[in-house]
Amino acid sequence: MEVAQLLLGGISVGCVYGLVALGFVLIYKATESVNFAQGDLMMLGAFITLQFVNTAYWGLPFWLGVLLAVLVMAVVGYLMEALVIRRLFGQPQFAVVILTIAIGFVLRFAAGFIWGHEPLTLETPFAGRNVALGRLVIGVDEIFVIGATVVLTGTLYLFFARTRLGVAMQAASQNQLAAYYMGVPVKRIHGLIWALSGGIATIAGVLFASRGSIDPNLGLLGIKAFAAAVIGGFGSLPGALAGGLIVGIVEPFAGRYIAAGYSQIMPYAIMLVVLVLRPNGLFAQVQSKKV
């Protein structure tokens, strides 16, 4: 029973890692850049949701507050790309990396200035509620995290597979020049991908906040999500989610059966092993190019 409890908790946390990793992969596939502020977008999205929802602030209905926060963060993601990232077009990739790291510091400072540095709790309609299945106690918040991740994953799959905008995003990510010649507005598509990434990060932040407190340092969770993206394969959307689940499941088992400190080390140890044995990630699809 203890194994089942650890597994369930690991899956719910892994879903959050996977969604943040999904944001990393979306931007990388589209622009071949790594957004190291992705975790901080998650943190900011969680705080904006808290601002909308908590009774100490604006006290809006929970689902309305989540929707508004997703829209706000989608706009933030779009403006980041349009006003800042796009101006580095043609520059070395490490310039974008350094810039996104700096943006992350700015976002953490802004969150600390506005909401303070003490941990805050997001008010949700299922906080403290549990469902008992025999001796297994399942938190409603865990069911919400897993269920929301499944729904979001299915929605994204249908979006990329069945909509014109989703197909255009895939085309722009696979071959920007060919997509441009086919009439795809590549720059606008890049902005929309950043917007989508910001919205997904907000959902991940809400899912994390539904299970615990949040503070400005929550953005550092993006480092584990980056490890999850590398483990799954940095060019694979399903791999990002799978990598997040691997990291989320391994952490509680390592903390319980090895030592508490190992739970924080294991994601990076797994990433190191994967980079040595399978550099493209566990679920990456490697395509050979003819020259």
SSE blueprint:
Elements: H1 2-31, H2 38-53, H3 62-84, H4 93-115, E1 130-133, E2 136-139, H5 140-162, H6 164-174, H7 176-181, H8 186-209, H9 221-232, H10 237-257, H11 262-277
Antiparallel strand pairs: 1-2
Helix pairs in contact: 1-5, 1-6, 1-8, 1-9, 1-10, 2-3, 2-4, 2-8, 2-9, 3-8, 5-6, 6-8, 9-10, 9-11, 10-11
Mean pLDDT: 88
Distance between the termini: 55 Å
Number of strands: 2
Counting H and I runs of at least 4 residues, what is the number of helices? 11
Strand content: under 5%
Specify Rg, calculated over alpha carbons: 19 Å
Query: Sheet with the most strands?
Result: 2 strands, antiparallel
Secondary-structure content class? mainly alpha
- The helix fraction, in percent, is over 70%
Shape: globular
Lateral strand order in the biggest sheet: 1-2
